[in-house]
Write a structure and sequence with these properties.
heterodimer; A: alpha+beta; four-stranded mixed β-sheet; two-stranded antiparallel ribbon; 21 helices; 6 strands; B: mainly alpha; two-stranded antiparallel sheet; globular
Chain lengths: 533, 498
Amino acid sequence: MMQFLGLGILTWITFLPVAGMAVVLLLGKDNKQAIRWTAAVFTGIQVVIAALIYMGFDRGMSGINTMAGFQYVEKVSWIDIRSFSWFGNLKIEYFLGIDGLSVLMVILTALISFIAVFASWGIEKSLKGYFALLLLLDAGMMGVFVSLDFFLFYVFWEIMLLPMYFLIGIWGGPRREYAAIKFFLYTLLGSVRMLLAVIALYFSVSVLDPATGEKVHTFNMIAMMNPANFEPGSLLEGVGTTWRYMAFIALFIGFAIKVPIFPFHTWLPDAHVEAPTAISVILAGVLLKMGTYGILRVSFPMFPDAAVAYQIPLAILGFVNIVYGALVAMAQTDFKKLIAYSSISHMGVVILGMAALNTQGMTGAILQMFNHGTITAMLFLIVGVIYDRAHTRGLNEFGGLMNQMPRYSAVMVIAFFAALGLPGLSGFISEAFSFIGAFQAFRWIAIASTIGIVLTAAYMLWTLQRVFLGTLPEKWKDLPDINGRELFMLVPLAVIVIILGVYPAPAIDLMSSAVNTLVDIVNAQGAMALIGQ
Amino acid sequence: MLPHILESAKLFYPELALTIAFCFVILAGLVTRNRIFTGLAGMAGVLAALYFVSVQAPVDGTAFSDMLAVDGFSRFFKIVILAATFIVQLFSLQSAELKSRAMGTAEYNALLTALALGMCLMAGASNMLMMYLALELTSITSYLLAGYTREAEDSAEAALKYVIYGAVASGMMLYGISIVYGLTGALDIYSVNQALGSGQVNLWTLILAGILITVGFGYKISAVPFHFWTPDVYEGAPVTITALLSVASKAAGFAMMIRFFRVTFADLIMGGQETGAWAMLGGFEWNEVLAVLAVLSMTLGNLVALWQNNLKRLLAYSSIAHAGYMLLGVVTMSPEGVSAVMIYFVVYLFMNLGAFYVVMLVADKTGSEEMSAYAGLGQRSPFIGVAMTIFLLSLTGIPPTAGFVGKLYIFSALIGAKMIGLVVIGALNSVVSLYYYVRILKNMFLKDAAPGGAVFGLSVPEVAMLLLLLVPTLLLGLYFGPLVEYAQASVSIFGIPR
C-alpha cells in the first residue's frame, strides 16, 4: 500500500481539496491571484496523485466483491457501538479502496477538477467562497468513488449537494435560484430513498467479528455483496423477493436522478443552463457518472437477482434516454441546452451498455462514462469560450466563425466529432462496445437505439454548420480567437480523446478483470434467481 | 413514613436543587435588581441539578410511594432538559429583548428554574396525579414566561392563547385520568397496568380515556391536531422562551408520554417480544393512534412552514414537524425506537437552539424576525451565515451534521420494525422540509443585502455561544458512538423487565 506521511494515498487524494479549502479560507478576500493559484496547485497535486495511482494500479486484480481484490485499501474503525442485546453491534469503518470500476473515475475526477479551476479563472464575484466550495465539491466527488463503506459513501454523496447548490445559486445565470433549488430537491429526493435502502441492507447483513466472534451489523459494501451474509428472516434475505425488488428500485431511483435517467432528468437542463461554465463541466464531467457508478458498484453486485429481472426495463430506459435526449437536443437553439440534452442522450448509451450484463456492454459503459466525461467537458468549455466573448448562446445568432476563430474551430470540430462517434475518436470505441454488448443481449432494443446515433450526427453537424459556416454576422467581426488559458484546458482533453480513440487499451486494461468479475457475479446469482422462480 | 421520605429525598436532590435556586432567586429579587446576578444564581441551581443527576447511582427505583420513577430513562431526559435550560439561561444573559425590560428580571430567572423543575418532574412522573401536577407546573410557568415582555402586544396575546389552549387540553387530560381511575381504582401507572391486565375493563371506555389523556400529551409536544397554540406562542414569546419551549418542554412531554404508554398499556407479564417490541394489553394497538398523529404532524408542519415569512413562526412549524419525526420513534414501541427518540433529542437540542440563537442575534441587531432581514446576511456577517447554514442542514438531516444521525436512528428503528410505509412518509417529509430551510439559505447567500443593511460583527461571548452549539452539531454528525451507547444504555424504564 502506498503511503505518505502515514496516510494512505486515497486519503490524500480525497482530502487534499479540503486542505486547499482551508488555505483558501485563510487567504485575504482581495488576494485573488493567490486564491486562484492555491486551488490550481491543490488540484494539480491531485492530478499527480491520480497519475501515480494509474501507474501503480495492478491490472490483474479484480476487486468488486473480494476484499483482496481491492487496491490502495485503507481500513480503520470509525464508529464502533457495542450495546445491549436488542440493539446489536454497529460498525462503521473508514474504508477506502479502488478497483477497476472506480480507478477511471478517480482519474477523471482529478482531471476535471483541475480543469474546472482554470475554467473558473474569470470569476470575480466572491472569489474566495467560490473556490472554497469548488474544492469541497471536489473532495465529495472523490470520496464517493473511493469509499467502500456505505455510510461513508452516503456522507460523501450528500456532502456535494450544498456546494453545488451554492455554486449554481450564487454564480449562475438569471434563473439560478430556481435551477439551484430544483437540483437540490431532486437529488435529496433520490438520496433519501437510497438511505432507506441502505438502512434495510444494514439490518439484513451481518458478519462475524473476528475479534469477538459475535455477529455485527455492518455498512461494509463488500460484505453486502455476499449472499451468505444476509441473516435468515431479515428483510432483504433470499433471492428475488418483493422486498429485494423494492430495495433495488429505491436505490435505482436515487442513482437514476443523478444520471439522470428519463423521467427524472428535468433538473439537468435547468442546472446546466444556469451554472457557470466550470460547474457545468463538473456536473457533466463527473457528477452524472456518480449515478451510473452507483448502479455498477451497488445495485448490480448487491442485487444481481433484481438486475437480471429488470434487465429489459433498464435497457428500454437506456433507449428512451438515447432517442429522447437526441430529439430534444435537435430542437434547441441555446448552445448550452443542446449540450445538456446531448448529455442525457450519451448517458443513455451507458445505461444501455450496462443493462446488457455482458463483458462488452459493461466495458463499453464504463469506458463511455470516462469518454463522456472528457468529451462533454470539452463541449461545455467550448460553449463557455464563445459565451465569454459574445455573451450569448443563441445558435442562430452565429455563423461563419470558421475564419474568424480558426483554432477554436479546430478544437470544436474534434469535440463534436468525438461526441457523434466518429471512428478514430474515443466516443466511437465506447459506443461501439456498448452497442455490441446490447445487441447480444436484446437485439431489437439495440437496433432501435441506433436511431439515436443518426440523430446525434444530425444535430451535431447541424450545430457545426450553424456556428461555423455561412456568413459571419457584422457584430462578431472582432471576436478574438481562443486564448492560451483556454487551450491549456482543452488540448489535454483533446489529446486524451484522440489517444483513446486510436488505442483504447490503457483504459480497458484497467477495468477488464473487474468487469469480468462483475459480469460473473451478476449472471451466476441472477441465474439462481430465475431458477428459483 | 419518615424514613421512607428521607430515603426518597436522596433520589430527589436534582429537583431539590432547583427548588432551592427558585426560592433563592425570588428572595434575591427583593434585594437586588441586578439581572446578571439573579441570572447566574438560576444557572448555579441548574448546574447543581445537572451535577446531582449525573452522580446518581445507576440504579432504578421510585421515590415518594411510586410517585416518581428514578431510572436511566428519566435521568437521560433530565439531562436534556437541564442542558437546554442552561443554554437558554446563557441566551437570556445576552438577549437585548430582555435587557430592555428593567422590571421583574428576578422573577424571569426564578420562573426559568421553576419551569426546569416542572419538566424534570414530568420526566419521572409515574403516578397520573403526579403527571398532571407536573404538567400544570410546567404549563403555568410557561404561560407566565411567554407573556413576560407583556408590553409587547403579541407577547400578551401569545400568553392568553397559550392559557386557553393549555386549560382545555389539561382539562381533557384530567377527565381521561379520572375515567382511568374509575375503571381501575388506581392512579399510579403500575397498579393501573395490573388492573388492566386482569381483563375486567371495558375496552371502549379505556380507549376513550386513553385518547383524552393523549390530548394532554399532544398539546405538550405540539403534535397535530393539538398544535394550534404553537405558532402564535412561538412568535409572540421572547426568543429565549420560544427556544426553551421548543426543546425542553417537548422533551418533557415525550418522556412522560413514552413512560405512560410503555408502562400502562404494555403487557408487562408477557414481556417484550422477540424483536424487543412491546406487546400491548387488550389487543388495542396504541401505536396506530400515535402513527396518525406522527404523520399529521410531519406533513402539516412541513407544508405550512413552506409559507412562513417570520422566522420564529417558521421554526414553530418546523418544530411541529420534528415532533412528528420523533413520534415515529415512539410508534415502533420498541427499545430501538425509544432510544432513537432520545438520540434525536440530544441532536435537536443543539441544532434547534442554534437556529433560535441565530434568530435572536439577528433580531437583536436588526430588530426584525422576518425573512427579509436575512437578505445578504452571508456577506454582512459570514460567521452567522455559515453557522445558520449548518444548523439548517442539520435540521434537514443532511450529513455530516448531527441531524442526520437523529434521522438515521429514527428511520432505522422503523425499518427494523418493518414499518416501511411510515418510513417512506418520513423520508419524503424531510425532502419537503429542505425547501423552507433552503429559503433561509437563499436569502442569506443568494440575495443581495438591502441598501442600508448593517454589517454587524459579533462580540466574543456571542461567538463562543455559537461555537458551543455549532461544534456538537458537527461533531455528533461525525462521531456519534458515545451518544448512541449512552442513549441505548439509558432506555431502562423502572418496572419494565429488560
